[in-house]
Amino acid sequence: MASVSRWRAVTPAGRALRLGTAFWLSVAWIALLVFLGVFEDVLPIRDADARGIRTGEVERFEGPGWNAWFGGGPQGEDQLARVVAGIRPALTLGLVVTALAALVGGALGVTAGYARGRIDAVTTAAIDIALAFPALVLLIAVRSTFGNSLLVFIAIFTITSIPPYARIVRGATLALAEREFVDAARSMGASTRRILLKELAPNLVLPVLSFAAIGFAVVILTEGALAFLGLSIDQVTWGALIAEGTGEIRNHPHVALVPATVMFMTILAFNLVGDGLRELTAPRTVATVRRLEVEGDRVAPVGEPVLHVHDLRTTLHTPAGPVHAVDGVGFDLSAGEALGIVGESGSGKTMVLRSIVGAFPLAGVTRAGTVDVCGVDMLRAPRAVVQHTLGTCVGMVSQNPLTALNPTRRIEAQIVEPMVVHGGLDRKAARSRALELMQHVGIPAPERRLREYPHQLSGGMRQRVTIAIALANRPQVLLADEPTTALDVTVQNQILELLGRLRREERMAMVLVTHDLAVVHGFTDRVAIMYAGQIVEQGPTEEIFSNPRHQYTIALMGSIPDLDLPSHSRLKTIVGSPPSLTDLPPGCRFAERCRFADERCRAEAPPATGPARHGYRCWHPGVEPPVEVGRGR
Amino acid sequence: MAGSGGVALRDDAVLVVRDLVVELRGPGGAVVHAVSGLSFDLRQGETLGLVGESGCGKTTTARALMQLVPVTSGVVELHGEELTRARGEQLRLLRRSMQMIFQDPVSSLNPSRRTRDILREGLDIWGEGVGSFGEARIGEITEAVGLSPEVGGRRPHELSGGQCQRICIARALVMDPEVLILDEPVSALDVSVQAQILNLLADVKDRFGLTMVFISHDLAVVKNVSDRVLVMYLGKACELAGPDDLYREPRHPYTRALLASIPGHRLDLPPAAELISGELPSPLDPPSGCRFRTRCPRASEICADEEPRLRAVAEGHYVACHHA
After folding, report:
1. Which segments of chain A have a pLDDT < 50?
2. Is B30 near chain A, with CB under 8 Å?
3. Does A456 touch chain B (CB under 8 A)?
4. Which residues have a Cβ under 8 Å from the Cβ of A422 and sit 6 or more positions away?
5. Alpha carbon distance B217, B234 (integer Å)
6. Which end of chain A, N or C, is surrounded by fewer C-beta atoms within 10 Å?
7. Which A residues 140-199 touch B at CB under 8 Å?
């Protein structure tokens, strides 16, 4: 989904602003704790050790109120003062342990992940052993020998926290070291030290910080649990306060509840911050609207096309604003007819197919216009009817056959299932049809192949299998999204021939979406050229190739290397890049890159013109001598 | 096909690859025969196109030239200096004269660094004053690759694929390399951007006197950029010729099949289905003799018994086939 990546290009700062209220509330809570912890001594708070039974300021088990906001403790202590006094040990323990463990674990992890081989094997084994070691036993043993000072706790917590950090950093480093920028740095003569510090480390900061925030919470939680067992530090801690208060939980619940609430909120805050940071490392495209909507009314087709698309408008609601991915697309296909939709990344060609079947990469989408498949209104019919139509009338072939197939299921199960679920066949009939289909798509030794798993087949064979699955219920419409892009040229040729043969034999209507003009040549009856969400030109394939009218079509054809031209021929290029789909220009969408563009092109959107069979949206249609195309790829 | 032999090597080459063998460790200790006895060379200012389908060993060859994968045997020489034997500081110095451009321009750039710092990388590594480095050179190259100054403050994910590939090319050129190795440099780009980058490569090649190894699966692209084309199959060389010769008169059965598979081509060839059959054999256990024989319509007994050596069939046109 090239079009998705197009609007993911948001700056980290921009993304940070959208981390959400929960994240920023958590940050505010942590900031408040830090403030109280640092200025504890100068703030107008009572002494945490002062007992009300001596000073008379606070009653024993006094309820929360104006005198003592969080109430009084068993000896008349001010609970607010004690909770605030607990901040320092909690934050110190968390911060020091997390920082030390992250640094040491991070260094170990980076070294292991980058060096690989023996160093990695030894480190990984050590991590595994360390993770299996019972930390609590270590703690009790060390505590009985060295006492229960904060320092001892920091040491023990750090040692037991290092392995998880080492493990997570090692994993991240392994993934990063695969990336080509590391090879590029090596080729430039960068030393190992430089690669580790300058290339890898900066990319590990965010994942480690996100893990550390959650690690921080774990440290505080563990301290609380230990305090409950009477194993904690020799200071006022939240855990100790909770332990003390639980004895009086019936009569004076506030004594335990106040420190428990503060601890709970702190742990929650650190977890939310960790989640937020993780979101920054792997930004997901989140929809701002969480529903699929349909607008406008259906426009009935003229005649009886099996696929009728009229004025289709698909808008994706993203954080960057509404993306007009498909904007007024229309075409009709009769039985046996093939349409090629050609465009570059971000042109909306794949989104047209997604809009037909109603499958989107994110949740917030509005569709308007008409999509009829086999006479069913795919935008407005009940869900069950749409599902049934998709299962029986539509076959889909996608770009990557490996991800289209379920890796854990045998080929046979994957072909049989749609026939049983939607086609109404029993298992036996479905099995024999599966065998027939495998032969039909040219798979040698089909009985054996049916028993195999997807990974046992080559890329070309896998694509044949997805085609067999698509054909299972004798669809009237076949939607193929870049079906040969992931394949080698000799295999591509075989798959295109196969699709052409099946279309003729089964009289299917076919939509072939591709970035490669040469692929539609000879394999489709008509071609639609898409640019920035619109079909800018549509007509019979031969005519589009021999007499392209839209300046984008002409420029696109000119930029393809031509096999018939001598080597080192200068290529014609299109300057610049397509407009953003969130901020479309008022006039012609290609104007900015077009060498014929004038004032009108920039101001006024060109309407669809030309004869019905060959329409285009261009104020200055080309009348240049035909460009030879189709020698590429 | 698919043969070995150094018959096509010339005396005045800058970069020489002789009997290159790369065997990689596969799962369970199996040996992947990625490159098996490949020889070719490049003259100053020449562009060699390496074509073949996935699994033919073209990317492994590129990585072996850069010493990014361990070479099992054979020699890579730059100006008579053996890269394959170089270690440590010596390798670091030699590598400087060879730079590589990768397929995925976005993944080739460190996501956490700004363009400005990425372009300065060579300078940071080698220090000011080494070779022809310097801030002035960075400026000159940034302009030569068509990057506007305002991209300097941006990070890779804020830029388009075309812009990222321009940055990769600029970063390599700052090193003042003699040889540029390009591994599918335009495959991840849109057609209109591909044309921009191909023209740019032609410009910088002239301007900076570069020698290039250009790897691609796209035969039309390879024809456009190359002075000589080497067709590979399953780790071996099939055919080596000038682009116009090769596309006009392909001799090797695999070259013919490859060209006949191009959609919409107008070459004088039978349908692809008559020229190639079956599936690519596993590089874990390649066929004996000619590696293409299992899919070749002309294969005979000798093809299984004896590996065809690369031989001249015309001036500058070499084929490794018993029947061509």
Report:
1. 1-13, 625-626, 630-633
2. no
3. no
4. A388, A391, A392, A473
5. 14
6. N
7. 179-181, 183-191, 194, 198-199
